[in-house]
Structure formats: C-alpha cells, structure tokens
C-alpha cells in the first residue's frame, strides 16, 4: 500500500483511506481527514435521517474548486459490508432501468463515503423496506430558495408562514438551513400515494404566492424570482433528492445543512438575530448537537396523514 494510502479500523470495519492531507476546502484549509472526522463524529444524529434512504453522492475529488459529479449508481465502489439496493431508475438516468445504490446505515459507511470525497449526501423523502422495496414518502419537504436581492431573512419569514400552515393541517414541522443560501421546512407524514406530497406542496406554494405575490413565487422561471423566495415544491417528486440534515455542503467555508429551532427562525424574522448567525461550520454543528441534541428529530415528531388535495 502506497504512503498516500493507509488502512484504518472504524467501528470494527477495515477501511482503506487515501490522501488524507488533501485540502478539499481551500478557503478554510479543510482536509479530507477533517471531512472523514466530521462524518464519524456526527454519525449518531445523521444516520437516523439517511438510514433506509438510497443515497445520491455529490463527489468533489479535487476539492470544491474542482469539477464535481452526482453519482446515483454508486454501489460498484462499495465494500461488501455496505448495504446495497436496486431501485427503478428515474427518467434522468438514460439507458438504465434500475440503479444499484447504497444505504448509509453505519458509521463506517459514512467514513467510506467521505473517503470518496462524497462531500454532500442527498436522499429521497422515502425509504426502502427490509426487502429493498420503495415505500410511500414519509417526509414532506418545502425547499426555500432566495432569489436575487433576498436571503436567509426573507426565507425565515416564509418558513414561519409555512410552519403555521403545516401545524394548522395537523403536521409537526421542523426546519433546517440548506448550508448554502436557503432553508428547508420538513414534516413527517403519512401519504396516500407517491405523488400526494407533490400535490399538497404545490397547492401550498401556490396559496402563499397568491397571498403575497411580491414576496413568494412558486414557479421556477428565473425571470420571476428577483426579490422573492421560491417555494420549491418539486423536491417532493419521488425521483428527486434533497441534501440530508447534517450533510456538509461543497461551499467555500465548509458549511453544513443544519437543523435549527423555530425560536431561531422567529429571532431572525423579528430582527433580534443576525441572519449570518444561521451559517454553521462543522465545529458549530457538533457543539450545537452536544448542547441541544437533534433539533431535526422527525422520529420523535408527530406523524400525521397528509391532507388530501
């Protein structure tokens, strides 16, 4: 084994790692070794949110200033101890009827993925069962993407409105930063069919846009978005994935998609908290988990039937 490669043991699994000194986030000097260390340390709260969900990797082998690629058909890289699942291919994967994907369910699985420079972990809003069959969506997601001239403060204002609407419909919402520009509001649900969350989310986005057309947009066209927050309801499409809570983002500062409290959303909305305070690094996130636990505890939230549309 070359000096650049070494074998380590993580949670009883033998794993070959390489180029640990490679800087993947040049702006802050964050190395591959630090990426692996973060995912190992955050595993207790991250793993429950990705377990059972086929993972799409966003890989940055030359760091965040280099080229990147999404990888759904990722099982060919995996050690034997990483669980695999074969799922129907979405329409975007040309020439394939199925994909061989992995499930990240143990701390060593996260370390293996991090060693591939899979900096971001993206998962769908549904899980597979013990036989690998896809179930109905169990999460609703509303992705808030600020357009030009808007930012996290405007997202907090929209998130507050969405949270109130979801609660009025009997749901129990949670919220996180995207780790980039925006935020995501989630709720654990019981869906009637695979397209049920998309129908509901689209209707909700249309309603908020109709109420405040100068602040909210539900359509994707970029020309409509300056000065407004897009409620991206389409992330509920079963073929799509969203960045997982506690995932790193491939951004210059090595930021993290971070669960936050509704009190923090209110504080930004009311002007008592600087929106910049909702930008978190890995050390910030680890400290928050130690202090607050998992603020994205959907397993402990109330799971309710999604209203029919």
Automatic annotation (TrEMBL):
Gene3D superfamilies the record matches: DNA primase, PRIM domain
**Would you say which domain of life the source belongs to?**
Bacteria
User: Which key words tag this protein in UniProt?
Assistant: Ligase
Q: Residues in domain DNA ligase D polymerase?
A: 31-296
GO terms assigned for molecular function = ligase activity
Protein's name in the database? ATP-dependent DNA ligase
Keyword check for Transit peptide: no
Enumerate the NCBIfam families for this protein: ligD_pol
Is Chaperone included in the keywords of this UniProt record?
A: no
Q: Where are the transmembrane segments?
A: none
Supply the InterPro entries for this chain. LigD_pol_dom (IPR014145), NHEJ_LigD (IPR052171)
The record's PANTHER family line, in alphabetical order, gives: BIFUNCTIONAL NON-HOMOLOGOUS END JOINING PROTEIN LIGD
- Which Pfam family, an example, fits this chain? LigD_Prim-Pol
């Amino acid at each position: 084994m070359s000096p650049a490669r070494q074998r380590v043991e993580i949670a009883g699994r033998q794993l070959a790692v390489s180029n640990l000194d490679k800087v993947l986030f040049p702006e802050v000097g964050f190395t591959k070794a630090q990426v692996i260390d973060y995912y190992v340390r955050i595993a207790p709260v991250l793993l429950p949110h990705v377990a059972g969900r086929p993972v799409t990797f966003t890989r940055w082998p030359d760091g965040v200033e280099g080229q990147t690629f999404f990888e759904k058909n990722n099982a060919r890289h995996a050690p034997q101890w990483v669980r695999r699942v074969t799922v129907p291919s979405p329409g975007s994967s040309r020439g394939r009827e199925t994909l061989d994907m992995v499930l990240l369910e143990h701390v060593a699985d996260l370390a293996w993925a991090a060693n591939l420079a899979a900096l971001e972990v993206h998962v769908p809003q549904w899980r597979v069962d013990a036989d690998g069959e896809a179930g109905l969506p169990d999460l609703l997601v509303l992705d808030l993407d600020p357009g030009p001239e808007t930012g996290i403060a405007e997202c907090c204002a929209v998130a507050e409105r969405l949270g109130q609407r979801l609660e009025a419909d009997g749901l129990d919402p949670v919220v996180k930063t995207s780790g980039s520009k925006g935020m995501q509001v989630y709720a654990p649900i019981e869906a009637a069919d695979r397209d049920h969350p998309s129908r509901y989310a689209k209707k909700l986005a249309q309603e908020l846009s109709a109420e405040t057309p100068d602040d909210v947009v539900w359509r994707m066209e970029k020309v409509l978005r300056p000065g407004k927050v897009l409620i991206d309801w389409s992330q509920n499409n079963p073929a799509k994935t969203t960045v997982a809570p506690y995932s790193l983002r491939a951004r210059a500062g090595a930021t993290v998609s971070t669960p936050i409290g509704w009190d923090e959303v209110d504080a930004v909305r009311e002007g008592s908290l600087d929106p910049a305070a909702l930008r978190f690094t890995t050390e910030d996130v680890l400290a928050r988990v130690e202090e607050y636990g998992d603020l994205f505890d959907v397993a402990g939230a109330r799971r309710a039937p999604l209203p029919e549309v």
